[in-house]
What we know:
With 184 residues, the chain is an alpha+beta fold. The chain has helices at residues 3-6, 22-25, 40-47, 94-107, 135-159, 170-173; strands at residues 13-18, 26-36, 57-61, 64-68, 88-91, 110-119, 122-132. The protein has a seven-stranded antiparallel beta sheet with strand order 1-6-7-2-5-4-3.
Amino acid sequence: MSRxxxxxxxxxxxxxVRNKRATFxxxxxxxxxxxxxxxxxxxxMLREGAAELTDSWCAIEHGEVFxxxxxxxxMPGAAFGHEAKRPRKLLLHEAEIEAIRKGVEREGMxxxxxxxxxxxxxxxxxxxxxxxxxxxxxxESLKExxxxxxxxxAIERARGGDRGRSPAPRAARGEARPNPRRPE
Length: 184
């Protein structure tokens, strides 16, 4: 199962792509849901699940928010195509734009896209105010991730969830090899 499949889908939402590097590189704060102004060929490519958010970020220009760095591949054979990495306008309320502007100016944060998804047939972007992590913080995140993985594996072993795996060799379990000629 893919990572996107593991994330719980909310009612009426279909995940397109998630920014996997966001939580590793940044500490995420406030999140906002925004609509996107897209062309037809972009929507068709998103329905196929083709997009990349890794290098995406948002900028406020003339009181409007634009999503930049999102790669939506060009649709082959489209009569009226689009540029793959063009800036895309986000649809937000004035109060949300003001909250984002204050976060960027006062607290020195940046705005990144964390995921793209369809909600009731419309493409939405989840954006978040984020503060960059230092290398030490990234190492700490990796340690926490490894500890959580080991804990899940230990719980699975305790439940007897060896689904599909062969049991450990008898010598590793401390058992003697049975003599096939002599009945036990």
